[in-house]
Design brief:
Alpha-Beta Plaits, three-stranded antiparallel β-sheet, globular
Amino acid sequence: MASPLTLLMPVIPGTSLEAIAATLAEYEPTLHQALTSIGTVHYARTLLLDHSTANLQPTGQASDNYVIAVITEYDGSFNAYINDFVAQVGTVFDALLQFVVGGKALIPVANNVVAFQAFIAQNDASQHIPNNGGGGKDDNGLYQAYPYTVQTILAALD
């Protein structure tokens, strides 16, 4: 059964939207390659949100209300997934955390694994009521059309 991650990271006020977008674009190939090598990620995407607009869409205007969202579905435990993130995607997070409130204290994430795990757990909307489906052991609020792991799906494609 897959688990969701909805990491919402508030951006340091005054940070340029263009700087965040450029960093995301620069690291996108690295991120895709790393997520493939992790082998437990069903889907992943990164969004820039502006919580000062009704539809959360960044307008490009100066704002102190930006949020970087990392949304994924993955197989396995939270801690194992975050450890894989640190090992495979640590440099990407190091680049993004420079823009995030409290993020600089976590850089490099490879030297701050426990603090990074705590930061993600605190900012993962999927782990908190009401977004976690009510908190039941097997109820994470995520609809799944199939019960298969990424590795089972990839093996079936070979």
